[in-house]
Each structure stands twice: as structure tokens, then as C-alpha cells.
Amino acid sequence: MTVIDAHQHFWNLETGSYPWLTPESGPIFRTFEPPELLPQLAAAGVDRTVLVQAMDSYADTDAMLAQADAYDVIGAVVGWVPLLRPEEAAEALERYRRHPKFAGIRHLIHDEPDPDWVLQEPVIEGLKLLAAAGVPFDVVAVLPRHLEHVPVLAERVPGLRMVIDHLAKPPIREKGWEPWASLLARAAECPDVYAKVSGLNTAADAETWTGEDLRPYVEHAIELFGPERLMFGSDWPVATLAGDYAKVWRETLVALSGLDEAGRAQVLGGTAARFYGMEEQ
Q1: What pTM does this model have?
Q2: 3-state secondary structure string across 177-240
């Protein structure tokens, strides 16, 4: 079984611009690059990763693709194009699709002042470009409103494959359930929508969380999507705000322990390999 971490980041504060990353971000306000992650992947038995954009910029995407060239462990890159400017996005897509590890697009929707940013007509046109090119879209869903958009996008952009990052950040810390559970169920009704079992530790109590805290939310997602539409991701280094890579890996396995071996194989690698086109690696 090939094990894939379907959601991790790198950033370099000396060479890149990340306005969301400030001293108030605490221990993640520093440079994170591949040599720091590689031994942690090896210790967990992770074979490949999906490197995901951390800024809406060409510079960030170009840097990630260069890292993918340099490190075989990076199996796919989720970059950025200006969806709000469809003509420019089309040119950027044509350029990036020449790279064998370019595998998806994301936009930091949650940083936009307008919670309905993704529903603007030019953005819909940009997403139609992704659908036509077979390029999937990572959905950052932090607010319930963001999760509400997923079925709307599925209807307005037929054929667009989407993956909801971090299970849309369920209210684990508060031991809450709604409206998250119902909105996730509505999104899961769309067959082209997937989700990542990632970033859950930072939605829980940073000091005390365990896999048992995550389990109800993960099992709800399994019931809705099935293992064949779920994929594991560490969300490193953001995850280090509430534990290290080893704990995220260990406790994710606890949260997935109700699955049989075949189901775990899908969540821990098979789904990501299919979704991001990594099956030949």
C-alpha cells in the first residue's frame, strides 16, 4: 500500500510573501522546508505527499513546483491561478499543466472579506476552466457559509471535482455537531465531492486532544463519503500548533480504526492517488 499525506505545506519567509502569517501565528511564523519534514514522513511510513499552496500567488506555486522537482517524495502540487480573472487563469493553467506534478488548484477563500467570493460569475467561469481541463479544486471551508457553497458549485460547474479541506473544520473543541454535520451531508450527496481527514487536531483542544475526540466526526464523514472519497492529510506544519507529525499520524489511525484494511488503504493513499493523478508514481 502506498501511503500518501494529501495535505501539507512549505513556506520560506525570506523568499516568499505570506500576509496571513504574522508573529501572532506563534511557532509557525518561521520557514518550513522539505528537509525538516522528510524524516518525519519516513518515521510514519508515508511514501508521498501532496504539497498545497499557502498563498494566492504565482511565486508560491512556482516555488512548490521547484520543490517537487527536487524531492521525489512530493507526488503532487496543488497550486493557484487567478480564478477571478478567467482569461489570465486559462493562460496560467496551460503553463502549469505542462508540469507532471501539477495536480490541482486552491484559493484562500477564507481570507477573502466576501464570504460569497467563490460564487462570483468570473470565479465560476474560472472553475469551469478547471472542470474542462480535469483539474480538481481544493475547497477551503472554514465558515458554515463556505460549506453551503459546495453543492451550489457542484450544480453550477458540472464535472468539477472538489475536495473539502479538513472536513470543513468540525466544531470538535466545543463538542458541537450542527450545522456542520448536515452541511457536510449535503455536500457529500454530490458524487464529484471528496473530503480530507486533515487539520482536525487544530479544531480540537490543542493540549488534550486524542483520536477519540476526532472519531465521531471522522466516522460521520466515512458514513457520508465512504473511504473511496476520503483522504488523509497531516496539514503540517499548521498541525504543529497542536502536536507533532507523529501524534497526528498516530491519532488519525485511532480515528480510522473502525475501518477494515481495504477502507484504511483508500483513506491513507488510494483515494489521493486517484484524485490527484498519482497512480503511476
Answers
A1: 0.97
A2: CCCHHHHHHHHHCCCCEEEEECCCHHHCCCCCCCHHHHHHHHHHHHHHHCHHHEEECCCECHHH
